[in-house]
Amino acid sequence: MRGSVAREMLRDSREIPILDVRTSWSRKLTGAIVIPLPELPGRLGDLDRYRSLPVVIVGDDGEAGRNACELLAGAGFRHAIFVPEGAQGLFAGVRGGLDPGGGEREGP
């Protein structure tokens, strides 16, 4: 899902969790579930309560998000959504968005 569409979903509902699978980040994204991609297979149980919700997945890039999405889908998550532009494509203007200097900022 394009970052702009995911941003609209997140603006419409604060109930939708963001799964941050980045392995390189300077600060945690406020409100996100942070599980680095290499740890995700062993921590799927941490996400069980989100199985029936859409889960927006962001990574260092689109490939990381796609890998996490495929892993969740294979584990029975029906609404795993990845952002092909990676974390930077989603964060512009949303909870914990990237500021012009490249660091994350607190969201609205």
What fraction, in percent, of the residue positions are helical?
Answer: 25-40%
**Dominant shape:** globular
From the N-terminal CA to the C-terminal CA, the straight-line distance is 22 Å
Range of strand content: 5-15%
Strand order of the largest sheet: 2-1-3-4
Mean pLDDT: 76
Low-confidence stretches: 94-108
Rg computed from alpha carbons, rounded to a whole number of angstroms: 13 Å
Tally the helices: 3
Structure classification: alpha/beta
Report the biggest beta sheet as strand number plus sense, adding barrel if it closes: 4 strands, parallel
Helix-strand pattern: HEEEHEH
Please give the number of β-strands. Answer: 4
List the helices and strands and how they pair.
Blueprint: H1 3-12, E1 18-20, E2 33-34, E3 55-58, H2 62-74, E4 80-82, H3 86-91
Verbal overview:
By secondary structure, the chain is of the alpha/beta class. Helices cover 27% and strands 11% of the residues. It has helices spanning 3-12, 62-74, 86-91; strands spanning 18-20, 33-34, 55-58, 80-82. The chain has a 4-stranded parallel beta sheet. The longest helix is centred in the middle third of the chain and has 13 residues, at 62-74. The chain is globular. The chain starts with a helix and ends in a 17-residue tail after the last helix.
